[in-house]
Design a protein that fits this description.
By secondary structure, the protein is mostly helical. The chain has three domains: 174 residues, Glycosyltransferase (Alpha/alpha barrel); 176 residues, Glycosyltransferase, CATH 1.50.10; 241 residues, Glycosyltransferase (Alpha/alpha barrel). A hairpin with a 5-residue loop joins β3 and β4. The longest helix is centred in the last third of the chain and has 24 residues. It is globular and about 70 Å long. Belongs to the terpene cyclase/mutase family. InterPro entries: SQ_cyclase_C (IPR032696), SQ_cyclase_N (IPR032697), Squalene_cyclase (IPR018333), Terpenoid_cyclase/PrenylTrfase (IPR008930). It is an enzyme of class 4 (lyase).
Length: 603
């Protein structure tokens, strides 16, 4: 440990942060967290409800109250430049601004909010309008087409400006989707169907063959949409996706369709007291695994069995109807709209293995079965390039379906931990084959990480960014997450690992903190991630001391509870999670205490 750093100060900061994290547990004993309220989600929910209202013989008072409150919230949270950002801490962007402006137009409240409309119009014109939306997302139509569809429903955009979506392809068996290269990502099939249909409804294709095929595909794809909708009514538990589907069907006169009814109920159930909607309902499974792994399973004894049971119960035991994923994975939430993915799944495997140790292996049989199934699920979705995608193997045409370094590193850690826990118990020929598969997958994964490391030593993640950066990338998050795999698997002396560690070390700001890229404003999350890797990787003592001083000061001044909008929720939709700074702080200080022989016990 740096000689001049006060050990009692480090321990006090850790104990304080740890106690706060434990207090964030639900009454049931696990964590649920709190996702940021979203202007984007609120704008889409308002328009979805308005499209339903238009079809009713008499406007529903409950829906109208939700619309009115949502519009008021949007007006109150317009940025000074006339636009809107995804969260209350986000810079304005063209996508959210056009959606919010469309909400004001669709609801006929432009006179009431004349000042907001004038400012929004000026912002949208300055940024570039429709062309800017299409440019932002490139060939990925997952979000550009829904945005423009909402604008068209509000008479802000001509339907002919909106690319059509081949919703008829949803009639194909799922195994063909990656072959036909859908223009949307793997998790956006409901949008392909509903938005493709509403575009067809208002602007028929000129090609007679295409027109006939789509006409014949309408009912069949609507039937498929029913099978994709979860019990909660919320596709992916996401307000925007659910709203886009709901508004599209309602605008076609399908307001009595069961998908619309369940979608509306989801919106009614998920609105917040201030009239806004979040981007998603919760990240309960994700923040529970992050919290558990932050303290290496050392949660209070009375909660260990509860947390373990919660995580075991979240593992999918059947084929998922949405992505056709095999049993064995975990999603980010405990709700029915989740989809198993290769970030939550390795996090859950690490968490149950950590809890296995702290519960003295009394649940080992059940945990072994769960880990076996989870590991097989991860092995089965590894891409040919050696990396891991988020949801589906082989969907590499669009950015959010490609292999990513942060998920790959997380998976490598889970495979290695599984291997180390059970390798000595493997006796049969089948066990030997499984061990070989795991070892081969690990080597291929490291090969992928080597190939995509940037020349400066960093890695860029898929699901996190930094709004202060011109390119919106967050190599600090990506590099920290990748280095965790190199160090945990005993490969910290590798050239790639040392280059990554040097990049993090050299990226420290003058303040002692870190941001997503050098020279940008510090954040608690990014400072904690960087500091943890310097501690684990035996980095510069002077850099560690400055980082510890920054983070301990943040705890002492309560700044460590201030979240930053560094999360991406699909297609560059920003969010922040209330627990991220707290969890990352606990994790970094926990490793620092262990590294320097300081007790972490407060019991």
């Amino acid at each position: 440990m740096p000689d001049s750093f006060d050990q009692s100060r480090l321990r006090s900061a850790y104990i304080k942060a740890q106690e706060q994290l434990l207090q964030e547990r639900t009454l049931q004993g696990w964590w649920e967290g709190g996702l940021s309220t979203s202007a984007l989600a609120t704008a889409t929910a308002v328009v979805a409800l308005e499209m339903v209202q238009r079809q009713l013989p008499n406007r529903d008072d409950q829906y109208q109250e939700l619309i009115t409150n949502g519009l008021r919230w949007l007006a109150e949270h317009q940025n000074d430049d006339g636009g809107w950002g995804d969260t209350v801490k986000s810079f304005s962007n063209i996508s959210t601004s056009m959606l919010a402006r469309a909400a004001l137009e669709a609801t006929g409240t432009t006179d009431k909010y004349a000042s907001e409309v004038k400012q929004a119009d000026a912002y949208i014109k300055r940024i570039g309008g429709v062309k800017a939306v299409i440019r932002r997302y490139g060939k990925d139509k997952t979000f550009s087409v829904p945005i423009l569809t909402q604008c068209a429903l509000a008479d802000q955009v001509d339907w002919k400006q909106i690319p059509s979506l081949p919703f008829e392809l949803a009639c194909l068996p799922h195994r063909f989707y990656k072959t036909v290269k859908l223009p949307v990502v793997s998790y956006a099939l409901p949008a392909l169907i509903a938005i493709g249909q509403v575009r067809y409804h208002f602007a028929r294709p000129w090609n007679p063959l295409t027109r006939i095929i789509r006409k014949l595909s309408r009912q069949r794809t609507l039937d498929k949409l029913v099978t994709l909708q979860p019990e909660s009514g919320g596709f992916l538990e996401a307000t925007p996706l659910t709203s886009f589907v709901t508004m599209s069907l309602a605008a076609m006169g399908q307001h009595e369709h069961p998908v619309v009814k369940k979608g509306v109920q989801f919106l009614v159930d998920s609105v917040r007291p201030d009239g806004s909607w979040p981007i998603d309902t919760n990240l309960a499974t994700w923040v529970t695994t992050l919290s558990t792994n932050a303290v290496e399973g050392d949660v209070p004894e009375e909660s260990r069995d509860t947390v373990l049971k919660f995580l075991l119960d979240q593992q999918y035991q059947t084929v998922h109807p949405y992505t056709n994923a095999d049993p064995g994975g975990w999603a980010w939430t405990d709700l029915t709209g989740g989809v198993p993915d290769a970030d939550d799944s390795p996090g859950a495997i690490l968490a149950i293995l950590n809890l296995n140790q702290t519960t003295n292996f009394k649940h080992d049989t059940e945990i072994r079965q769960s880990a076996d199934l989870g590991v097989q699920w991860l092995l089965d979705i590894q891409n040919r390039d050696g990396g891991w995608p988020t949801f589906c193997k082989g969907w590499g045409a669009l950015p959010f379906d490609r292999s990513s370094p942060d998920l790959t590193a997380h998976t490598l850690r889970a495979l290695f931990r599984y291997q180390g826990t059970y390798a000595d118990l493997w006796q049969s020929e089948a066990d030997t084959r499984q061990l070989e598969k795991v070892e081969n997958a690990i080597e291929r994964g490291f090969g992928f990480l080597r190939r995509i490391q940037r020349t400066n030593g960093s890695w860029v993640p898929l699901w996190f960014g930094n709004q202060h950066a011109d390119d919106e990338e967050n190599p600090l998050y990506g590099t920290a997450r990748v280095l965790a795999a190199w160090f945990e698997l005993g490969r910290g002396e590798a050239v790639e690992a040392q280059r990554g560690l040097n990049w993090i070390s050299n990226s420290q700001n003058e303040s002692g903190g870190w941001s997503g890229q050098p020279g940008l404003p510090d954040s608690v999350e990014e400072t904690a991630l960087a500091l943890e890797m310097l501690v684990v990787g035996n980095g510069s003592p002077e850099k560690i001391e400055r980082g510890l001083d920054w983070l301990c000061s943040a705890v002492e001044s309560e700044r460590y509870r201030n979240p930053s909008p560094i999360g991406f929720y699909f297609a560059k939709l920003w969010y922040f999670e209330r627990l991220y700074p707290l969890i990352f702080t606990v994790s970094a200080l926990h490793r620092a205490c262990h590294r320097f022989g300081i007790s972490t016990s407060n019991r």
